Amino acid sequence: MRTVDVVIAGAGPAGSATAALLAAAGVRVLLTDRSPFPRPKPCAEYLSPEAGRILDRLGVLDAVSQDAARLTGMRIVSPGGIAFVGRFRPLGDATPFRPWGLALPRERLDGILANAAAARGADFRPGTALESFAAGPTGVVVQLRAGATREAVHAAILVGADGLRSRIARALGVARGADRHRTAFVTHAESVSGMGDVGEMHVFAGGYVGLADVGGGITNIAAVVDRARMPAGSGTRQRLEALLDRVPAVRGRLAGARFVSPVRAVGPFARSTTRATADAVALVGDAADFYDPFTGEGIFAALRGAELLAPHVCRALEHGTLRAADLAPYDRDRRRAFAGKWWLERAIGAVVARPALLDHVAERLARRPAVADLLVGATGDFVPARRVFRPSVVWRMVA
Asked: CB of 230 within 8 A of CB of 224?
């Protein structure tokens, strides 16, 4: 049986970033993904300004930036058609790494990160699925399958970076179901009219449509809808078309557009875990938690989660301390790093779910661009979320 230090299941941003950090520290890493690479991934494909800072620390920012679109802020349009724009700019002592976020297809981003992990010494195995695992306080045995070939691998630690429907989280019994069942339908289109240097979110009752330039004249189109308001249809394309019809302002801009990729569905969202650690196992990225794509923090959280996890894995390997209690400080660090983000995501979700309230807030923010910049800066991950919850700021949003 082959032996490595760490097996990572899932080579999205969370898994590949974790692999790159561990391999650079001399850890023997086996990075797997069930899909062959390159592969598309349904996603809003937006990276916040602070995600750029982490990419720079990983040494891949230049590669990611090449041909990526720069987004200088976000434009939100309420169900009543009231729009406000928030820009990424310095706000007191909160300064973005750069005054823009990036957007590019996941097919390119994930390939860059996986190749960076391999360049640092990780053994990258695309097209290799985790079938099962058996973990305990002394390590884990992972059963892998690549086509018709099966292999058992012994590792000290298994990292679950296997996304929203994480098999590893379910097997550990730590996955918590969604409190809101939402599904996204995602595609790429060319020749969408009116695209600028900001991402866009157009809200309708029960959902929203997001638009973002991802470079090369291509626009990411993502429609998210509550299950209770899911349109009828025989396929993903038909359902996306029906959702676009609910936002006439967007539909009109697609008159001369052409879809250039299949419509893919992903969801449900709003899932979490009771903990992200167990004996010889840790979860990172969407496998640990993901609330909703509205605030666009998924890739940042994946990259930041990798930075939080890697030191704990290195410490556990060095001391041979692989029990859940030994890895639990990672859970503590996740709470400290992400608690504000979690509260902000849910607060924004509560407002977006109430059309009249969002119309009210949008009207205030349209007249108060400094407050809009503060809110968008918090979703851009460089403004502490607690600043948005200050009574004076909340008052200016609603009064």
From this structure: no
Q: Tell me the pLDDT tens digit for each residue of 248-292.
A: 999 999 999 999 999 999 988 888 899 999 999 999 999 999 988
Look up the pTM and report it. Answer: 0.96
**283-298 burial: b if 16+ Cβ within 10 Å, else e:** bbbbbbbbbbbbbbbb
Distance of CA 369 to the CA centre of its chain: 27
The span from the CA of 249 to the CA of 233, in Å, is 22
CATH class of domain segment(s) 2-68+103-178+271-344: alpha beta
How far is Cα 129 from Cα 121, in angstroms, rounded to an integer?
20
| Of the candidates 216, 214, 194, 169, the residue with the CA atom closest to the CA atom of residue 77 | 194
**Tens-place pLDDT, residues 34-64:** 999 999 999 999 999 999 999 999 999 999 9
Tokens of 149: 């070939």
- Cα 156 to Cα 8: distance, rounded to the nearest angstrom: 11
Q: Cα–Cα distance between 202 and 81 in angstroms, integer?
A: 8
Structure tokens at 68: 């990526």
Q: Is the peptide bond before 36 cis (omega within 30 degrees of 0)?
A: no
- Are 48 and 171 in contact by the 8 Å Cβ rule? The answer is no
CB atoms within 10 A of CB 235: 11
Q: How far apart are CA 49 and CA 67, in angstroms?
A: 16
Residues facing residue 1 across a β-bridge: none
Please count the other Cβ atoms lying within 10 Å of the Cβ belonging to residue 391: 7
Nearest to 212 by CA among 63, 73, 78: 73
